[in-house]
């Protein structure tokens, strides 16, 4: 299959398995092998998830399998029309922080958002001659720790999207997969004009539904979805959260803003939660 810049997105290779140049560089050091998982969706979708009492797999347009997706540790997201202003609270972010133990055997682990890669989000930096499977990491939790240890050196640097400044030292030119990954990951670094945290957010997929009860350690919800300005609570929804034993915190939503406008506030709330859990300092 030929590849060129006229074709958007990093495509699937298919056929023979790819050489895993990148995954072989894992060096986790003292990073925990199990790290919290983050699932970001829209409020309207979260309402359905809460009603079903589980995070359900859905057919993935990239891999053609029923999967449910997470990022490790950080709440990287771009919801549909996420740069467009709206007064509809259902369009805005709702975050589930999930125990990693809820996925015993990940279906796959990738060093960035595969949906974004496949749709062309990273095309400005992506090597047009590489295929998606070539970036795959080994399909277990220790691969996450290994990727963070090698590429970032610490969970804090990974959370911020700042890869090691010397990451390409001793990486030969013929290791095009590793170098291709670094080109993409730099799109997430602090100081980028428009950093996209998905470019270095480690993706974990499961082929199994994830029950919410006792697996969700925190939900992050627009405050105004739980109570109105007069103090009237969303009693039915709050009751469902309590029955599922889901702790929650809120961000201060405002109408006629965009879903992306709350990325910083949501990241701060996740950071605080991870600090309380001893994952970040």
Can you describe what's shown?
The protein contains eight helices and ten strands. The strands form two sheets. Strands 1, 3, 4, 5, 6, 7, 9 and 10 form an eight-stranded mixed sheet that branches. The chain has a two-stranded antiparallel sheet with strand order 2-8. With 281 residues, the protein is an alpha+beta fold.
List the helices and strands and how they pair.
Blueprint: E1 37-42, H1 43-52, E2 54-55, E3 58-59, E4 66-72, E5 93-98, E6 108-110, H2 114-119, H3 141-151, H4 155-160, H5 176-185, E7 203-206, E8 210-211, E9 216-222, H6 223-226, H7 235-243, E10 248-251, H8 263-276
Structural class: alpha+beta
Helix content: 10-25%
Count of alpha and pi helical runs: 8
The secondary-structure element order is EHEEEEEHHHHEEEHHEH
Instruction: Report the count of strand segments.
Output: 10
Report the average pLDDT across residues.
92
Main sheet properties: 8 strands, mixed
Cα end-to-end separation = 47 Å
Q: Using the alpha-carbon principal axes, give the shape.
A: globular
Relative strand content: 15-25%
**Radius of gyration (Å):** 19 Å
Extract low-pLDDT stretches.
Answer: 1-5
Summarize the structure.
By secondary structure, the protein is an alpha+beta fold. The protein has eight helices and ten strands.
Question: Which tags fit this structure?
Answer:
single chain; two-stranded antiparallel ribbon; globular; alpha+beta; 8 helices; 281 residues; eight-stranded mixed sheet
């Amino acid at each position: 299959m030929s590849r060129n810049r006229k074709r958007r997105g990093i495509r699937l290779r298919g056929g023979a398995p790819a050489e895993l140049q990148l995954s072989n560089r894992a060096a986790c050091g003292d990073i925990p092998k199990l790290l919290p998982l983050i699932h970001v969706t829209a409020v309207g979708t979260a309402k359905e998830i809460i009603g079903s009492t589980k995070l359900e797999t859905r057919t993935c347009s990239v891999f053609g399998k029923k999967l449910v997706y997470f990022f490790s540790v950080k709440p990287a997201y771009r919801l549909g029309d996420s740069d467009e202003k709206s007064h509809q609270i259902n369009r805005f972010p709702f975050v589930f922080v999930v125990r990693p133990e809820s996925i015993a055997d990940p279906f796959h682990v990738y060093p960035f958002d595969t949906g974004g890669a496949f749709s062309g989000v990273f095309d400005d930096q992506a090597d047009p001659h590489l295929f998606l499977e070539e970036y795959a990491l080994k399909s277990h939790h220790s691969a996450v720790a290994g990727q963070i240890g090698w590429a970032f050196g610490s969970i804090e640097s990974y959370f911020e999207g700042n890869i090691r400044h010397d990451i390409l030292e001793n990486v030969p030119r013929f290791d095009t997969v590793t170098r291709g990954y670094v080109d993409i990951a730099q799109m997430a670094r602090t100081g980028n004009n428009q950093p996209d945290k998905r470019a270095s957010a480690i993706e974990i997929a499961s082929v199994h539904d994830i029950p919410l009860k006792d697996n969700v350690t925190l939900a992050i919800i627009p405050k105004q979805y739980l109570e109105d300005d007069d103090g009237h609570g969303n009693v039915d929804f709050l009751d469902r959260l309590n029955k599922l034993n889901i702790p929650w915190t809120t961000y201060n939503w405002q109408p006629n803003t965009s879903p992306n406008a709350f990325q910083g506030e949501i990241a701060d709330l996740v950071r605080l939660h991870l600090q309380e859990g001893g994952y970040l300092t």
